[in-house]
Every structure is written in C-alpha cells, then in structure tokens.
Amino acid sequence: PGTFTFRTSSNARSLDGVEGSVEVAAAPEGAHGSVHVEGFGFRHADGTRHLPLGTTAYVWTHQSTALQEQTLATLADGPFTKIRMCVFPKSYKYNTAEPPLHGFERKADGTFDTQRFVPEFFRHFESRVADLDAIGVQADVILLHPYDRWGYSDLGPVADDRYLRYVVARLSAYPNVWWSMANEYDLMTTKTLDDWDRLAGVVQANDPVGHLIGNHNCMEMFDHSRPWVTHSSIQRMDMYRTAENTDAWRREWGKPVVIDECAYEGDIDLGWGNIGGEEMTRRFWEAAVRGGWCGHGETYCSDDDILWWSHGGPLKGTSPARIAFLRRILEEAPGDLEPAGEWDVPAGIVGDSYRLVYFSFMQPRFRNLLLPAGRWQVDVIDTWGMTVTPVSGSFEGVATVDLPGRPYMAVRLTRVLEPAG
C-alpha cells in the first residue's frame, strides 16, 4: 500500500513522458495474491496453501452471455480452484459456431491484420478473468492451441511475439492468472522446441509478477525440466495409467505435477471423453496421495452440443461432488501430501504426523497397518460415499482396520498429540 509514481516511455510522441501517480490500497479481506511454487506444492503470495483441483472449459468466454453467466455460477458453487481456458476460439468437433468477436481486425481479403488488435475482444476476456478471481478460481490461460480454422495457430513468429507481449501486458496484473503456453503443443507442428523457449521468454519478459507457466502435451510429453517451466501440465499418456505416474514424474522433473487432462467424465464416442464418475474420482485420489493434482473435464452428450469441456454451462456428472469431498480432506490435512507408498497401495504423508492410504479399485475386508512411533487415530474414508467413519480408540505399533470389502476406500491416520507436560 502507498503512493506509486510512473513515467511512460514510447516511440509515439503523444505517449512519451507521461507522468502520474496511483494510490494503492491494502488488499481486500480474503485476497491471497498470486500463486507460486513452493517445493512440490503451491502457495499464494500471503503463504496460504493452494490446491489446484482444476477443470477445463476451453472456450467458455466465447459463448453467449447467458451461458457464460451460468458457467460462473457453476464454478462458484463447485469444488474447482482452477479452470483451463483459451484466449482464442476453437474449431473442433462440437465446436463449430463462429465466435462473436475475433482478436484481430480483418483485412479486405478476410485475413487478420495482426498489427491491429481488437480491444473489445481482450477487454471481454479480462473481465471474465476478473469474474473468476472474485469467486476464488485461478484462470489457467491457454495462449496458443492448434484447433483453428481462422489462422491463430500459425500467425508467424513476429505476430506471435507481438500478440504475447500484448496479452501478457493486459493480463499479468490479475492475481489469478497462470500461463499455459499451449494446449497440445506437439500438434502445433510449425513450432520447434526452440520456438517454445523463445515464446516463453517473451511471456516472462513482459510479466513483472512472474505468474506460473507451463506447456501441455498431446502425444509427446513436453520437457518440463526446462528452466522456465514452473510446473508440469500433463495430458494422459495412455488409456489407463496416468495418475499412477505422479510420484515418478515428481522425481524426474523435481517440480509439482498437475495432470490437467486425465480424460473426461462423459459418454461421447472419443476415447478420452467417456470415463465414468467413479474412474474420474479414482484418478483424482490416486494423484493426490502420490503428491500431485488431477484435473477434471466433462463431455456428456447433449442435444444442443453444449459440453462443459469446451462451452461451460451446467455440470451433469457424478465426480464433482466427490472432488469437493477430496478437497475437504486435503484442506484438513496439516500440509501438502508427500508420496510415501505402501508396497501394494499408494499412500501420502505429511511429516511424521499424518498418513493417507488409498485402496483405489481394490476391496480388502481389513488391513493391517504398520504405524510409526506414537499413538494414532484412525478414520475410514469412503471416497465415493463421501463419509468419514472414526475407528474407536487409538492404536500403537500395528492397527488392524476393518473395511467394507468394496472399492474406493481410504484410511486416514493422524498422530495423537501427547498432553503438554
């Protein structure tokens, strides 16, 4: 807080040497600031933990005003703390409508004049980023993508750089922004790995806040060890095994693992868009106990072809309520989970005081748990039924925990604090 002065520098005489001042007030109550990496987790600027339990609605800001407002209402009432969203419109299956606005002015031949931005287009996108901030949701801004029939995906390096300077200058002041260089970078075949390094450099040079930045893959994993990458942004690597790789990816890159696209809950014909709510929930838990975060999406068939994954609107699936339950469990933990592993089931720990064991699709009738030193309280968690059942008493040495013999169960172990003195 305080008084800040400024002086402009410009090659346009009318914009050069303009001086003024701005009064900056204290942050409003409940504002935590931008998100940064701390270890394998995330913290806001004020130190508050951030749990990136995200979802995807690629072009929700390009829909009707009524549908956009419905999307915001859904997010405000839901469990998600982050949403992946494209700056530019999308052309793909279920995405055939012409957007109401484009980012560049048209020339006489119908192509874009990439030196003339349409401020209304970007002003609208900014307003939706601000709306997300007001409800506590991070905007994971996808700067480039290949699903295009207008020319956005192949503007050329000069226009790409100009666009990035412009959009980053406009958006970097918002605290809830993350940068995703691309959705499915490897489908943008005119760009090399050197191009992605250059483009990321443009983003970072024009972002005084230093927002989080990553790059998302289709078939070929991006090299998340590159120095400018703050966290991994991952799409599933096969039909099944993705969340199960979380702890291995942590070791490989030494950075937080965010599986932004593990497949979508839905029933469309495409293989990435028809897992059930149980499997979506399982993947979230699997990633969580291995020390990472999973992302949601939804692609249920609809007569109007309005699918959450692209358009936003209402949610129809069964996983969001269970993701909300997982969020509650993670918020109750004393810190971020570190992968500990059991030899046949995954487990996450926080220091020497907390352990969360997840049985996934296995269905034991009981489990013998070898406990670290001290006395421990045990809770049985039904991740699908969304219940927490305390086991009476406390345990030391080995705890034999009775279980219901059905999938998607977990056990939470919490060290019993000894009385002072």
Keywords:
six-stranded antiparallel beta sheet; eight-stranded parallel beta sheet; 421 residues; single chain
Apparent shape: globular
Helix content: 10-25%
- What spatial order of strands do you see in the largest sheet? 12-11-10-7-6-16-14-13
Mean of all residue-level pLDDT scores: 96
Derived from helix and strand composition plus strand pairing, the structural class reads alpha/beta
Report the radius of gyration as a whole number of Å.
23 Å
pLDDT below 50 for ≥5 consecutive residues: which ranges? none
Largest sheet: 8 strands, parallel
Secondary structure tally, helices: 8
Q: How many beta-strand runs?
A: 25
Distance between the termini: 44 Å
Strand residue content: 25-35%
Write the layout of secondary structure elements.
Blueprint lengths: L1 E6 L11 E6 L10 E4 L2 E4 L4 E2 L3 E3 L8 H12 L5 E5 L17 E3 L5 E6 L1 H16 L3 E7 L12 H15 L5 E6 L10 H13 L7 E2 L17 E4 L10 H8 L3 E5 L3 E2 L10 H13 L3 E4 L1 E2 L8 H4 L7 H14 L5 E2 L7 E4 L3 E5 L7 E5 L5 E7 L4 E4 L7 E5 L6 E7 L6
Parallel strand pairs: 6-7, 6-16, 7-10, 10-11, 11-12, 13-14, 14-16, 15-17
Antiparallel strand pairs: 1-2, 3-4, 4-5, 8-9, 18-19, 19-20, 20-25, 21-24, 22-23, 22-25
Helix pairs in contact: 3-4, 6-8
Brief overview, please?
With 421 residues, the protein is α/β, with parallel strands linked by helices. It has helices spanning 65-76, 119-134, 157-171, 193-205, 246-253, 277-289, 308-311, 319-332, and strands spanning 2-7, 19-24, 35-38, 41-44, 49-50, 54-56, 82-86, 104-106, 112-117, 138-144, 177-182, 213-214, 232-235, 257-261, 265-266, 293-296, 298-299, 338-339, 347-350, 354-358, 366-370, 376-382, 387-390, 398-402, 409-415.
